[in-house]
């Protein structure tokens, strides 16, 4: 199985098994980044995600023009949501041959 390295936007205080909601991000207003390794065969959906408006805090040195993707991955009975750095097209390219259109 080939794993793909990506960068996830996450809440430092969040439980690692629970993806955060848009409400969590708006209320907490603190983002952090971490590298993850993802099995591309588990990805079931990719779409553009917009960071909330004013009042949120991204890590320093992250360009405000950066694009993000909301990714759903198969995880048993329920899908798990991840927010990844990169446009949906960029994420799809990283997933490679596993998700060609």
Q: What features would you describe in this structure?
A:
The chain has 101 residues and is of the alpha+beta class. It has one domain (4-99). 15% of the residues lie in helices and 37% in strands. The protein has helices at residues 22-28, 88-95, and strands spanning 4-10, 32-38, 43-49, 68-75, 78-85. A 5-stranded antiparallel beta sheet has the order 2-1-5-4-3, covered by helices on one side.
Provide a concise account of the structure shown:
The chain is of the alpha+beta class and about 100 residues long.
| Overall number of strands | 5
Number of domains: 1
Judging from the principal axes of the Cα atoms, what is the shape? globular
Strands of the biggest beta sheet: in what spatial order? 2-1-5-4-3
Unreliable spans are none
Distance between the termini: 21 Å
Task: Specify the structural class.
Answer: alpha+beta
Strand content bin: 35-45%
Helix content: 10-25%
Task: Characterize the main sheet.
Answer: 5 strands, antiparallel
The whole-angstrom Rg is 13 Å
Q: Average pLDDT value?
A: 79
Helix-strand sequence: EHEEEEH
Number of helical elements: 2
Give a topology summary.
Blueprint (H helix, E strand, L loop, with lengths): L3 E7 L11 H7 L3 E7 L4 E7 L18 E8 L2 E8 L2 H8 L6
List its traits.
single chain, 101 residues, alpha+beta, 2 helices, 5 strands, 37% strand
